[in-house]
Amino acid sequence: MFLNESFNKIKQTILESIPKDASVTDIEFEGPEIAIYSRNPKVLLSNGEIVKELAKRLRKRLVIRSDPALRMPPQQAEEEIKKIVPEEAEISSINFDDNVGEVIIEAKKPGLVIGRNGVTLKEITRKIFWRPSVIRTPPIQSRIILQLRHALQKESDKRRGILKKIGQRIHRSVLPVHNGWLRFTALGGFREVGRTCIFVQTAESNVLIDCGINVGTSSQGNSFPRLDMPEFDLDELDAVIITHSHLDHCGFVPFLYKYGYRGAVYCTKATRNLMTLLQLDYLDVAEREGKLSPYKQKDVKNVVLNTIPLDYGEVTDISPDVRLTLHNAGHILGSSIVHLHVGDGLYNIAYTGDFKFSKSRLLEAATSHFPRLETLILESTYGHIDDNMPSRRESERRLVNAINKTVQRKGKVLIPVLAVGRAQEIIVLLEEAIRHKIMEEVPIFIDGMISEATAIHTTHPEYLAHDLRDKIFHYGLNPFLADCFTQVESTNARTDIIEGEPSVILATSGMLTGGPSVDYFRHLATDPKNTVIFVSYQIEGTLGRRIQKGWREIPMTARNGKSHIVNVELNIETVEGFSGHSDRRQLINFAKQVTPKPERVITCHGEKSKCIGLAKSLKKILRADSQSPTNLETIRLV
């Protein structure tokens, strides 16, 4: 009843406000957007102020689409596009999304597809009645992105139904509430690192922020978020928001779909693509190691079909009384700080997720300005008073020196890296060091998911640091395509690398919890000429953490399944300045510079002492209510 009443009011307002000659044929929910289908869309597109004013009055996102009957058949439309766009644009692919009436044009020179002041795009729209979306042809083709596009096109009708149901839930009428309230419950990642999960509740809505797994423990009880809390009801869940693609923040999302969740997942497009890659890899690793996985590939596919990608700064309704905006977090590609606007000005929350409050070679620094803010939820990975990292320049110098020393003594360097973020940061550095002859010119082997993750980076240049983008697109220097890097194509090739000449090996996983890095370590560990260099945070309980602590005898399992002890004789180096997390100084500077100044700060995502210590420090510095809750604790914000 409430849904029909709400929708009918919206529909009536739209029809009364739009000129009759626009010939509106349908009005539909498409997730957070309301789509207006027209037989004469030129009337609305040429009078944009009408739609703007209407969106402002309704406080909804409106999108104008041509009636499907008007759209030129795809094959004919493709031929027409090629006639309109100059050959110099070098179009590489044209794909049609019938679900939203969009044609995606990939070109090496997208500016020529757009035309001056968008004149070419307007001509395309006028001729074929599909809405053009132009993207740059990536220098490296991503296998996972091609698969996602194919899946979304193949399941177009299903996707349309999903978006309609999501829209109905978002735009439902609400019961009159005189005493609005807001609270959040810690379901994982509080006073610990791993399985991050935050549950936000209002009188009308239930929202989950992040839903990760703990990659550093074999204990089922500590691996996954505490979704067994009595207040958490999957049937009542309105939305899931994912800050970034690392498994400790997104690895458990498919589990929700396995057990019946059919609502939306909100994140950036880069996060969606990387998240899918890492979730599928998680399943592959579990299968290879004979472990029971909490979900299947079909559940990962359902996540993709239900994901609604957002751009930074795009304000979106995700439930009747919650609006979401994502901001750059500077942690990895597409990572986001989540800003929630609750009620009609009732309350505002910003959750940093993992963030970096300084510029790196790969990304710009995290955003610290928000329109409104009452509570800040802040990560504390490096929140201890002694957690101050060396400068990036000093860290780079240390890494290159450690490599040079190892190569000079005819050894090999293993750098276990996270496939997403850290690997690309190190690739950019090593390419420059070799180009400027600061580092010994040795083969650099890349093993694991790094190449696929790098391909996704090149597909989304809009998220990269401005100077890196300029280097790639204006100066023709693409570090990801440099000749010094060799992709390892098979497990058999590893034997040649291990037995061969001095080299540098970048391999996943970054914490030696699985993947090729473990295989390399097993073979390189016994030779004192070799070095392992950690450039990522090592979670307690991982093999990487044990090696960092100085364990010299490591029980390991070979490929044949037999256990044996590996004597650790190689050199062990840790270079901390490459972290995608903020150190103690950056955490405090961020909290001091955040505008508006928050009334309350809540710490999470850190070891117990770091969460508690940072909360105490911020209480004194900001003179704000600062707390360090434990998992399963609920805090009422309003």
Annotation keywords:
638 residues, alpha/beta, GMP Synthetase, Chain A, domain 3, Metallo-beta-lactamase, Chain A, seven-stranded mixed sheet, 22 helices, 28 strands
Compile the SSE list and pairings.
Elements: H1 2-17, E1 24-30, E2 33-38, H2 41-45, H3 48-58, E3 61-66, H4 74-84, E4 91-97, E5 102-107, H5 110-114, H6 119-128, E6 131-136, H7 143-154, H8 156-170, E7 182-188, E8 197-202, E9 206-211, H9 220-223, E10 239-241, H10 247-250, H11 253-258, E11 264-267, H12 269-288, H13 297-306, E12 307-309, E13 316-319, E14 322-328, E15 336-342, E16 347-351, E17 375-379, H14 392-408, E18 413-416, H15 422-435, E19 444-447, H16 450-459, H17 466-473, E20 485-487, H18 492-499, E21 504-507, H19 516-524, E22 531-534, H20 543-548, E23 553-557, E24 563-567, E25 571-574, H21 584-593, E26 600-604, H22 608-622, E27 625-627, E28 634-636
Parallel strand pairs: 2-3, 5-6, 9-10, 10-11, 11-12, 16-17, 17-26, 18-21, 18-22, 19-20, 19-21, 22-25, 26-27
Antiparallel strand pairs: 1-2, 4-5, 7-8, 7-28, 8-9, 13-14, 14-15, 15-16, 23-24
Helix pairs in contact: 4-6, 12-13, 12-16, 21-22
